[in-house]
Design a protein that fits this description.
Layout (H helix, E strand, L loop, with lengths): L6 H4 L3 H13 L4 H7 L11 E2 L7 E2 L13 H35 L11 H10 L9 H17 L13 H10 L6 H11 L8 H31 L7 E3 L9 E7 L2 H11 L2 H9 L5 E6 H11 L3 E3 L4 H6 L3 E6 L7 H6 L5 E4 L10 E2 L7 H14 L14 E3 L5 H9 L7 H9 L4 E5 L11 H12 L2 E5 L1 H9 L14 H10 L4 E3 L6 H14 L11 E5 L5 H12 L3 E4 L17 H14 L2 E4 L3 H18 L14 H9 L3 H9 L5
Parallel strand pairs: 4-5, 4-7, 5-6, 7-8, 8-9, 11-12, 11-14, 12-13, 14-15, 15-16
Antiparallel strand pairs: 1-2, 3-10
Helix pairs in contact: 4-6, 4-8, 4-9, 4-22, 5-6, 5-9, 8-9, 9-21, 9-22, 10-12, 10-15, 18-24
Bound molecules: iron/sulfur cluster and Broken Fe4S4 cluster.
The site of iron/sulfur cluster has 14 residues, from loops.
Length: 670
């Protein structure tokens, strides 16, 4: 019998807790209560079930069990993991394909409402591939770039051209391991082929292809999606935003955009500010239209337009429970089917928009980039028409300011200024030990655990240890809700060395770097840190760790795998999908060992599943310290740095001259 949790065990977020109490009062179920009611299958959740053919499903429960076809547990686990990675890579990359098609349509004047906003980034990216720039219009260059990027999907031979943006040594490693993706789609299709009954049955060989597919995501589909989003909608720079359910407004028409793609949501932002729409809303008795976001669509418009985030993955149902949402407009990925049933208790309309996503019972208004602004206006008018149907509302008065928008271009600029933009100050801060290392905390929420707890607990503890944190996805929204993304407001909990750097540069201790596909920005930052010098000549030498403490989606597994292939130590929380049997003899644990030790030998990075937060933190710090030692950097010392500014000067003033000189210049007096 599954344990029934209390409201505070469901979520650490007080706004979420208020809505969960409301759900309980109204007798409405949510993902949290459904998770309590349904225990996970203890065979499937550790990868011990195969249903790849009609002879199964085969459930392997004892050491030595095999499926009807003779497949071993290791083969089944490798196949299951590979299929999940292929699905995740497909989701990211298909998003990238959509962006490339929009870029092509924009370049040819066929995309209503879109323009090339970042011509400089277009030029920088085009130059990487030797696309001619001189004397050509942005549209001509964009057309060539779109063609090049679109060709990467169906390419059969050669290499995905974006992989050339990895450090040289990394590319060599991939070549030696035979994992450079030939074409983005080709590798995904081959994953499905290889894992069909009676195909690839060597777990290590299967997983080699999983790596190749994931690289096609991180250094292919995701990277090009980020490039094009920036070119079309502007490269993010810091901007003031807000997060949590308190961003909904009682006297406005609330429209929540949810999913992943910025193409439609950017047009909805533009349409919501048009006099025609504002007047339409006022005629309906509202003050106007209040837009907010959930999940990564939220991150996309938060970091570019400052549009507030109503919450992360587990808050999609909770936003509707406020009773104040006229329409939730969804595109692709992470949209719960439960929204439609839940919305029937309120007046909220669930509007699906992607040609790829329909939900039974939802209103479908199909998006087409050729008529984007017209469709955006139609959607908003549909929501406004629904305002009169609003019943009792309860909006938690809880929201937090945050500053998102730390693209790698901006990080480069902020560290060095416009005349000497550089990663040098960041590398120097790591080399001296002011910053112990870097952690990327990314990924989803999972109702099997306490909403936002792992994200925020792990982040807080690492900040105390002078670890600079970058975040994307739902993890970023969790940190934003906690107030750790607002310049000095977040610094009270931060180690003294990191605090000194944040104060000097003027940054929060956690940098919001965008949506799930923007994990490619983190790869770019790591590459630029390597190129800057002083931290080795490949990503696996940088004192950095990736964490997905509350992961749930297949995309997270693809992200984790391409980060490992890029050289990172990646730690996931929750249950391992290759966990196997509790009583397994270690020597038979081929898959779990291979993705850790085996991948570390090949790529310098490894993937591990560590559910315990304390162990997760210890493993992160141990890895950072190991990498520091390997680089010959000084051992990190707490409180060595950071007594900067007036306080430090007052302290120094009290010292005798010789000691003062030593303290300031690090050399003894003459
Ligand atoms: Fe069972 Fe083999 Fe079919 Fe999988 S592929 S379901 S292990 S018979
Ligand atoms: S939205 S993939 S729940 S991060 Fe990108 Fe959040 Fe995970 Fe979806």
């Amino acid at each position: 019998m599954a344990k029934k949790r209390t409201i505070s065990e469901f979520s650490t977020d007080p706004a979420a807790q208020q809505m969960l109490i409301r759900a309980e009062e109204l007798g409405i179920g949510t993902a949290f209560t459904r998770a309590d009611a349904m225990s996970p299958c203890n065979i499937g959740d550790t990868g011990m079930c195969c249903k790849n053919c009609g002879m199964g499903p085969c459930r392997l429960t004892k050491n030595g069990d095999v499926g009807i076809c003779g497949a071993t547990l290791d083969t089944i686990q490798a196949r299951n993991l590979t299929r999940a990675i292929a699905a995740g890579a497909a989701a990211h990359s298909d998003h990238g394909r959509g962006m490339a098609m929009t870029l092509k349509a924009t370049a040819n004047g066929e995309a209503e409402g879109y323009a090339i906003r970042d011509v400089a980034k277009l030029g920088t990216i085009a130059a990487l591939y030797e696309i001619p720039i001189e004397g050509r219009s942005p549209e001509e260059i964009a057309n060539d770039l779109a063609d090049l990027y679109l060709s990467q999907f169906g390419q059969q031979e050669g290499r995905v051209v974006l992989t050339k943006r990895a450090p040289t040594k990394r590319q060599k490693r991939w070549e030696e391991a035979g994992v450079i993706p030939r074409g983005i789609d080709r590798e995904i299709v081959e994953c499905l082929h290889r894992t069909h009954i009676g195909d690839d049955q060597d777990p290590v060989h299967i997983l080699q292809h999983a790596v190749r597919t994931a690289i096609g995501d991180g250094w292919g589909g995701s990277l090009l999606a980020t490039d094009i989003s920036d070119i079309l909608f502007g490269t993010p720079a810091p901007i003031l935003g807000q997060a949590n359910l308190g961003v909904l407004k009682d006297d406005y028409v609330n429209v929540v955009v949810h999913g992943h793609e910025p193409t439609l949501s950017e047009m909805i932002v533009a349409a919501s500010q048009m006099p025609e729409i504002i007047e339409y809303a006022q005629a309906a008795g509202a003050k106007g239209v209040n837009l907010s976001g959930i999940c990564c669509t939220a991150n996309e418009i938060l970091m570019r337009q400052g549009i507030p985030a109503a919450g992360n993955f587990l808050q999609q149902e909770l936003a509707i429970l406020t009773g104040a949402v006229e329409a939730m407009v969804v595109d692709v990925q992470c949209i719960m089917q439960a929204l439609v049933v839940l919305a029937k208790n309120f007046h909220t309309r669930i509007i699906t928009t992607s040609p790829k996503v329909k939900i039974t019972g939802a209103t479908h208004i199909e998006f087409d980039e050729h008529h984007a602004l017209t469709i955006a206006k139609e959607i908003l008018k549909n929501a406004i028409d629904n305002y009169k149907n609003r019943g009792a509302i309860q909006i938690p008065d809880i929201r937090e300011d945050l500053i998102p928008g730390f693209s790698h271009e901006y990080i480069n600029y902020m560290l060095g200024g416009s005349y000497r933009a550089s990663f040098r100050p960041l590398n120097d801060a790591i080399m001296t030990g002011r910053i112990r290392g870097v952690a990327a905390i990314v990924g989803c929420n999972n109702p099997r655990g306490q909403h936002d707890y792992l994200h925020t607990h792990v982040a807080r503890e690492l900040l105390k240890q002078d670890v600079l944190i970058v975040e994307t996805g739902c993890g970023a929204i969790a940190a934003g809700k906690l107030g750790l993304m607002l310049g000095e407001a977040g610094l009270s909990e931060v180690g003294s060395g990191l605090r000194e750097v944040c104060e000097t540069v003027g940054i929060p201790p956690i940098l919001h770097m965008g949506s799930c596909v923007d994990n490619s920005r983190i790869l770019t930052v790591l590459t630029q840190m390597v190129e800057e010098g002083g931290l080795g000549d490949d990503i696996d030498q940088v004192p950095a760790v990736g964490l997905a403490p509350e992961w749930m989606s297949e995309k997270a597994l693809s992200i984790g795998t391409y980060c490992v292939a890029s050289g990172a130590y990646v730690i996931f929380g929750g249950t391992s999908p290759v966990g196997g049997m509790p009583d397994r003899v270690a020597d038979s644990d081929i898959v779990a060992r291979y993705i850790s030790q085996g991948w570390e030998e090949l790529y310098g990075g490894k993937l591990e599943f560590i559910p315990d937060p304390q162990k997760m933190i210890e493993a992160t710090l141990a890895h950072i310290d190991k990498k520091r030692a390997a680089l010959g950097l000084p051992e990190w010392e707490p409180n060595k740095f950071g007594r900067s500014g007036d306080a430090r000067m007052t302290e120094l003033e009290k010292l005798p001259l010789a000691q003062k000189r030593e303290a300031i210049y690090g050399v003894a007096a003459d």
